[in-house]
Amino acid sequence: MALSPSGSVDPLLTARPATRSPEPLIDANPPASPSRRPAAVITGASAGFGVEFARRFAARGHDVVLVARRREPMQRLADELTAEHGVSAHVVPLDLTQADAGDRLLAEVVALDVDVRALVNNAGFGTYGAFAEADQARIAQEIALNVTAVTLLSRLFLPGLLAAGDGVLVNVASTAAYQPGPYLAVYAATKAYVRSLTEAIWQETRGTGLKVLALAPGPTETEFFEAAGSEKFKVGQMLSVPAVVDVAFRALDRRDTPPSVVAGHRNKVTAVAAGLMPRRFTLAVAGRLTGE
Q1: pLDDT in tens, 172-206
Q2: Which of the residues are catalytic?
Q3: What are phi and psi of 129, to 5 degrees?
Q4: What are phi and psi of 91, to 5 degrees?
């Protein structure tokens, strides 16, 4: 039963059960032969978390499909993973902000004939600055990558991951998902969306064997701050990329993987506190950390 903000039943919010949309015409997970290795599709695989996730999955015997705009760093990573772990590493240069990117990636994966057992939606970026002065085209790109691509790729690959019986879906959110981010307004909003979407998928797929996780890193030693133009951030001590990915795999290795996990003890405390403190106080603190 859906309630209006006043607490009464709102017929406009009381929806009938949604009909299932047709499954993609292309199956991302055709029946596997015993000799095929499981594969992980990883976006944002040219740097940072994407590189580390690729290394971890390769070390666990997964073939990898590396997805990002920059071919050269991905090719170097692919060569490294093949040499060190004997896996197949495929490079797919792709701009995920394009409207047809999801369908194109799925078609590439099918053409590669890999047995997809994991999807890591890691690609994303933020932009520092006052919202009133933000470039509209960059806002649209940020939403396209951080929200639309994550949503559509999750939807496109989810049927195959469910069919596998032991699939993994990791969507990289942020500690910014736990409170609004002045001067990072769009980024924080997109990461709140990612966390909410992922936790909903977690609940919908319980008992299927699929592991679903929203990973919320705090400030980490990646290219994020440079790309965001955020040299003014007062972020304190940053975590290393391997330390954050360790947190993700510890959660995935649990028998009952939680819907989301925050990397770093201090970040966990901050995330919990953000939900308990008065909103004005939380915003004031966030503004001091990220403001001019």
Answers
A1: 999 888 888 888 999 999 999 999 999 999 999 99
A2: 187
A3: 145, 165
A4: -105, 125
List the one residue out of 179, 174, 183, 175 whose CA is nearest residue 274. 179
Q: Please provide the size of the chain in residues.
A: 292
d(CA 60, CA 85): 9
Domains of the chain: total:
1
In terms of Cα–Cα distance, which of 120, 142, 261 is closest to 199?
261
- Please indicate, yes or no, if residue 213 is contained in any of the structural domains: yes
Count of H-run helices and E-run strands, the chain: 10, 7
Give the pLDDT score at 84: 98
Domain CATH number, residue 285: 3.40.50.720
Give Cα separations from 85 to 60, 88, 109 (angstroms): 9, 9, 21
CA 105 to chain centre: 16
Paired tokens of 68: 């990002």
Q: Are strands 38-43 and 260-262 parallel, antiparallel or unpaired?
A: unpaired
User: Is the Cβ–Cβ distance between 201 and 169 less than 8 Å?
Assistant: yes
CA atoms within 13 A of residue 48's CA, in its CB half-sphere: 23
7 inside domain? no
Q: Which residues contact 77 (CB under 8 A, 6 or more apart)?
A: 45, 46, 51, 54, 55, 66, 89
Structure-block tokens of residue 59: 């070390």
Residue 22 located in a structural domain: no
Q: For residues 117 and 123, what is the distance between their CA atoms, to the nearest angstrom?
A: 19
As a whole number of angstroms, the distance between CA 42 and CA 81 comes to 14
* 205-221: average pLDDT: 91
Which of 120, 151, 137, 138 minimizes the C-alpha distance to 48? 120
Name the pTM for this structure.
0.81
Tens digit of pLDDT for each residue in 95-153?
A: 999 999 999 999 999 999 999 999 999 999 999 999 999 999 999 999 999 999 999 99
| Structural domain range at position 93 | 38-217+234-290
